[in-house]
Design brief:
It is a single chain. This protein is mainly β. It has two domains: 77-223, no CATH class; 232-414, Porin, CATH 2.40.160. The protein contains five helices and 20 strands. The chain has helices at residues 2-20, 172-183, 189-195, 202-213, 217-223, and strands at residues 24-31, 36-42, 53-56, 62-65, 70-75, 79-89, 106-117, 123-128, 133-138, 146-149, 152-155, 167-170, 232-248, 259-273, 281-298, 301-322, 326-348, 366-378, 382-393, 401-414.
Length: 419
């Protein structure tokens, strides 16, 4: 129960920090009157499009803006958002949640659309909320009015007859994009090939917009924010594992003194960032290898073994302090470990081995542990950390019980170019 309470407490702490931490970046807002106001925008881990922003003016005053207050805001080299006031579809497109019948419901809302690309033929935007992702466009050559690219998924039968074989997909967005291409006299075989089979997602729609606007890769970079697109990276590291192994006899009493093992540990890991520009919330998977030694003397007998531990640990980390060249983070994970035991010895006081039937080692092959980590990231490359693994039994023996508690200390190096 203590582990559960501690894990829940850390989860609550992460959530509180995520809500409370400011992250002001240079940028500007454009008022409804068209005035540009320079300052700093509080750039957060927006899982969906923000409904409001905090803006700090040069005189250090902080104001909150919603889509009813401003028509545009820019976070330098990171993100651009534009006000939109109009219909927003409400139908589900997730196959696990759609119901029977065609749903054309919508609400009229004031929202911030994320600007994905601007150009002479088409401007492309995205909007994500708790229901689904949506994409919008405008035609700069016409009235520049913004419209949603329509995509629907539904079942033809009623709710009691829903079957995947009756799924209907309306890719109206392809018809809308085709109409724009025809108007601009751009619908050649190459563009048609790009559009054929394009899914309703950011990469495919950006390819179409890029082709319509006639951009090269270099030109694309000048028409959209230049923030990092590196959502993932790899890291390697070396460190030290210190493990305390304690034993209990069949009566629950201490069987000999605890033994401390301090040996090298190697890791390789993979980070995934919720927002590659802020890199504040991180999901990781780490593979590690370490060795543990144990030796004990009890009642004129001695027993020892070597233990190879290979572990796979998924975790979530939050940068409490998130500076450009220095970050301080907390992490909560769940490690799954495989144990390989060798050099097992059970000796009499005179050094002669006891018969196999007296061997007290009935080891577990696998185990798991909750992990708690604290660390620093320096110059975007070097990660220095300390990690605690909750104590776990490693044997199922009826005579002797063994339990281990571990601490890891080390340095990781993040591979690749960091922005």
């Amino acid at each position: 129960m203590k582990k559960i309470y501690l894990s829940l407490s850390l989860t609550f702490l992460f959530t509180t920090l995520a809500l409370a931490q400011s992250n002001f970046k240079p940028g500007y807002v454009v008022t409804l009157k068209g005035d540009t106001v320079k300052g700093e925008v509080d750039y957060q881990e927006w899982g969906s499009n923000p409904t409001s922003i905090r803006f700090r003016t040069p005189d250090n005053k902080i104001r909150n803006f919603t889509p009813t207050d401003i028509k545009y805001f820019n976070i330098d080299k990171l993100d651009i958002y534009q006000r939109y006031s109009g219909p927003v579809s409400r139908d589900e497109t997730n196959n696990n949640r759609v119901l029977g019948g065609r749903d054309t419901s919508f609400t009229v809302q004031d929202v911030f659309l994320k600007v994905l690309q601007t150009g002479k033929v088409i401007n492309l935007y995205s909007y994500l909320d708790a229901i689904k992702p949506r994409y919008f466009y405008s035609d700069p050559g016409a009235d520049n009015a913004v419209h949603e690219l329509v995509y629907r998924v539904y079942y033809n039968g009623n709710t009691g007859e829903i079957q995947k074989s009756k799924t209907t997909i309306e890719a109206t967005y392809l018809q809308q994009l085709t109409a724009i291409a025809l108007k601009a006299n751009l619908l050649d075989d190459r563009l048609q090939q790009t559009m054929d089979g394009a899914e309703y997602n950011k990469p495919d729609l950006l390819k179409i917009a890029t082709a319509m606007n006639g951009y090269t890769k270099d030109q694309v970079a000048s028409t959209q924010p230049s923030g990092s697109n590196d959502n993932f990276d790899l890291y390697v590291g070396l460190g030290v594992n210190t493990t305390k192994t304690t034993s209990r006899d069949q009566n629950g009493d201490a069987a000999g003194v605890p033994y401390n093992s301090i040996l090298p540990r190697a890791v390789i890991g993979f980070n995934a960032y919720v927002n590659p520009n802020t890199r504040r919330l991180v999901f990781s998977i780490e593979f590690s290898v370490t060795d543990i030694k144990y030796k004990n003397t009890f009642l004129n007998t001695s027993y020892s073994f070597d233990q190879l531990v290979t572990s796979l640990t998924p975790s979530v980390s939050y940068n409490v302090y998130n500076g450009d060249n220095f970050k301080f983070y907390l992490s909560l994970g769940f490690g799954i470990s495989k144990y390989t035991f060798f050099n097992k010895k059970f000796l009499k006081y005179d050094g002669t081995p006891l018969p196999n039937e007296y061997l007290p080692f009935l080891f577990s092959s696998y185990n798991n542990a909750i992990t708690y980590k604290v660390g620093f990231l320096i110059y975007k490359k070097f990660q220095v950390y300390a990690e605690h693994l909750s104590g776990n039994p490693i044997s199922r023996d009826s005579v002797y019980g063994l339990k281990q508690t571990s601490y890891n200390f080390g340095v990781n190096y993040i591979l690749g170019k960091q922005k």
